[in-house]
Structures
1.
Amino acid sequence: MTAPSFAQRRAGPTLVVTGMRFEAGIAAGPGVETLHGLRAEALAQGLRQRLARPCAGVISFGVAGGLDPALLPGRVIVASAIHDGNRLRPVDASWSRSLSLALPEAISGVLAGADQAVTSVAAKTALHAATGALAVDMESHIAARVAEELGLPFAACRVVIDPAQRDVPPAAVAGMGPDGSTDIWALLKALLAGPGQVPDLIRLGRDARLARLALLAARGRVGMGFGLALG
């Protein structure tokens, strides 16, 4: 099958890549298609399959783990580049400027990508020192790589959920279902095994609420197609 031309690709919707189902729900809207619940190579394959059809551009959207100690839960980040562990991958400068104009409260800076959740303070500190990234997620580096391979515009907008100076409780990680939903039974099992996590989990829940509200506000401001101006 012949790959779509650049013009044909640009005729399609903006593809929004998220990790969790609730993020995809927030992202959905006119001029948008979402892809969520895939990790690592499965995400790369899913992206290539989807991008064989017309698409205007790809944006990574959702929550991220804080790496910069100055950033509190709910802080919006528009990526200036994506660090994939080896090198910086570019974002579309014009699209990123549009996002920053629509989101004046956002900070611009590097986002890091990781194939595994970065949950401990020690791991966050090490990754911040190695990359200079403001926050980390598990989708941006893959979406950036595939978009770059296929010559599509790419951007990323993420909101801090857990601050750099706080560990993520193991029960929260256990409760992340493979399809991007919350696995309640796995969460309860992890809590039974370690009931001392409850206070940290409650605090994370409060942080998650702030992040969700910030995501909703950001989504409302970027508008149709996530602010991607079609050429």
Note: The chain has one domain: 6-168+215-227.
2.
Amino acid sequence: MKDQLEAIQKEALEKVTQAANLKELQDIRVSYLGKKGSITKVLKGMGKLSSEERPIIGQMANAVRDAITTSIEEKATSLEQAALEKRLEEESIDVTLPGRPVNIGGPHLLTSIVEEIEDLFIGMGYEVKEGPEVETDYFNFEALNLPKNHPARDMQDSFYITNELLLRTHTSPVQARTMQEYEGNQPVKMICPGKVYRRDTDDATHSHQFTQIEGLYVDKNVRMSDLKGTLDKFAKKMFGEERKIRLRPSFFPFTEPSVEMDISCKVCHGEGCSVCKGTGWIEILGGGMVHPKVLSMAGYDPKVYSGFAFGMGPERIAMLKYGVSDIRGFYTNDVRFLKQYHKA
């Protein structure tokens, strides 16, 4: 039995030395030190030994067990260290490599245009107001001198939700709401940017959803010359100091008189070209003096108060200012288009 234990120790230590991984080492542990292992089988035969031999064999079996255990633990430590070193080598980072570029986003072109216009008018003392995009028929039309069955309603083909609710066709309802809020006894000086909706066929210059910025100034002794001066300053700020403006008679139900404003063509400087269709002028916005009926419905006495209003489309302004040929570029989220106007 002594020879048997010595043979087990020698064999076990050789296998431990040859073990290539922790799984093989665990198999060796079970094979020699487990409940059904080789040493246990030897110890089961100690009953046949004499009383003098039993303590000697028992002591030898413990020594063999300890030697195999120690050898397995040392081998396990060695294998774990080797595995760690291999992992560190595989996962090493070369700090000298250049970093990966980070793509930084920026404001959308329309957002930049709207903010630029807001900053301009805030500098002139205007407030920025907002209102609901789902609007009542009253504020969208009737409060703006467009009663039911008025033929001018056909100019704004609308998305109705119910008979009295619709997606707003312009931001003018915000003006009507603000005037009513002020109860006709204080001046109003505001702009209202936001999305508007009209039934339209989407193409290079039209969209069923677009952006508007409308302005309103109501006070005592407000004149058409004030409107012209305001729009002239706007045009020069947005398109350059060399821009000239002209006002043409037009019609809007909520202003009287009404005008369309043109700016001189920046391509031909008023000489006439394909961009301005040979006229030297490009239409940019509409406006006029607030209709007395609109003032009255909002609670203002038209004999005391007067005012002007104007409305513009930031998409059109952006298209003219930056040479954008297709309005759909603002809404299709093509990064190649958007990054052209990203100011780092």
Note: The beta strands are 127-128, 134-136, 159-160, 165-167, 188-197, 209-219, 245-252, 255-264, 281-290, 306-312.
3.
Amino acid sequence: MINIVILPGDGIGPEVTTEAVRCLELLSRARGLGLRFTGHHFGGAGIDAHGDPLPASTLAACKAANAVLLGAVGGDKWDEAPIRPEAGLLRIRAELGLYANLRPARIYKGLEDASPLRADLAQGTDVLVVRELTGGLYFGARTYSDEAASDLCSYSRPEIERIAHIAFHAARGRRRKLCSVDKANVLATSKLWRKVVSEIAAGYPEVELSHLYVDAAAMALVTRPRDFDVILTENLFGDILSDELSVIGGSIGLLGSASVGGDGPGLFEPIHGSAPPLAGKDVANPAGAIASAAMMLTELGLPECAQLLTVSLERTIEEGHRTADLGGTTRCSEFGARVRDNLRFELARSEAGERRVA
């Protein structure tokens, strides 16, 4: 039995996770995977039900699970709450030791015209952002008053070393190019970052290492995105650059992510927000949640099933099924149903191939 905790969260989170879970249920039945799903409150839903964005019962379930699939958190409803829904997201990353966030971004076949970049610039873009997730400004001490405020950004050598190893290992399995992004001409933390990453590179001679300041990287991503393979960077820079990179493919709704690194379960989520105005209208794009589910399957040691789901998602997009964020009229539930139709086809084709081999 593989136990998966579902955190639907807020806004469109429940809708997109529903479609991803239905795909996983289909795979589980067809391949006897034994996937077991349990839902728990998280984010704003956790505040409403328990007064806490990460209720104790939710955290306990996550720690006992094999993987966690998250929808989205946040919304205007909780702007004046004593604690915001996003605080739960920071806490769960720390509690599960999820220091590495993997955010792949590429151009899907059939969506070349959806990119805001010229086709000759965007076509062929395939980038993996490896973002440090439990350090930096988001986790540093902070002060606030009506007259002044401060946020502490700090990184230790071990924190940088462990995320660098994740990125170099990923690059070794791709095109063997790694760009480390920092602001070493200004920030002390970035100076240490560049020094440590350069030292770690010696253990990966097959990987070509380059360095860019974050402002230069932001420009390069929209002028020559194909030049990048793996981008390694710290928490704040990774958050911003991966969101910038996401729209090159046409919509932030397309992309999934994996947060890993601890001894326990990984956390898998689309990179989009909760989009409260779209909630309950069946217009959200579930592609990012489905892509996240595929990444989860890979992390669970089920790469063939992950590939079947990925191919089914790609075919659905190539067939021209577009949700509102991509200028189309396909409903969220309709898109998910079409992915499952393609998944049934892929499963049948795979089983037929296995019978021929036997």
Note: Residues 118-235 form a domain with the Rossmann fold fold (CATH 3.40.50).
4.
Amino acid sequence: MRPTEIKVMIIDDSAVVRQVLGAMINQAPGMRLLATASDPIAAQPKLSLEWPDVIVLDVEMPRMDGVTFLRQLMGEHPTPVVICSTLTEHGTATSLEAMAAGAVDVITKPRLGLKDFLAEQASCLLQSIRQAARSRPRLLRPSRPPPAVSAPQALPKTTDKVIAIGTSTGGTQALELVLTGLPRVVPGMVVVQHMPERFTAAFAARLDSLCAVEVKEAEHGDRVLPGRVLIAPGGRHMRLARSGALYRVEISDGPTVNRHKPSVDVLFRSVAQAAGPNATGILMTGMGDDGARGLKEMQAQGAYTIAQNEASCVVFGMPREAIRLQAVNEVLPLDQIAPAIGRIAL
């Protein structure tokens, strides 16, 4: 076995998924199918023999569902996991729960035409496995939100401040940890999390239920207000615009930027122009380099810039590139980012 070989386990009650995806993995350079199992209970004895580098996991399975297993796994033996699940409106929320529990990526599989789908999406599936193998998952325990601070809304000293956050792989957990650690009154925040179109509304609603701040999926024309977090909708770019003393967001279609839509660079560049030194840019865990150049533009316009440190990142790609470009004023571990935002609010 080559040292760089990625060992993959498939846990899925579909024999078609196990057969077709297993064959793809064995044929892919640098990968080996370690084992398959019809559910997590059946996987246990196989895991005791040899541990995989990546697990491809279904959500709905007999005896134990994938989310329950994922929580146990991340608490006992954090391992890169790619969710491969049939999604409905209900299932979308379930898959978001899985991502919050530590899944690196989610692949949507249809109820019909599954064999053809797996064959057609082979490149995407294998790329997700490769990216997962480079990640370093860890169990994150979000802190309880601090007590609400008694302060009037929209104080003059905070209305002109904007905090822009960009994140990708591992970002669902990271954002939950940061946002649940904030008091109710903080500068308005705009966020790009690389996420498919059908996920962002449910993701924002879930965070809103956990946080002292208001969290919502951004709509065109939404105002950026103290205590409000606007998350870019999947499949659309989000930009910050200024009208007098007020900030609003503009939501638009267009080509992908750095292979992403929404793109962190698109948001950060607009923040650089609209807010300049009144902004703070934060780049967190993620694959690739989206956001690094935009963060550099923010810094050039006088914004304070922060990158998540390597030790606390699931994937140290985007922050590494920003640091390489000397676009960062401060490098912080994940658990120090919420306190840093709190200092900005003062």
Note: The chain has two domains: 6-133, 156-345.
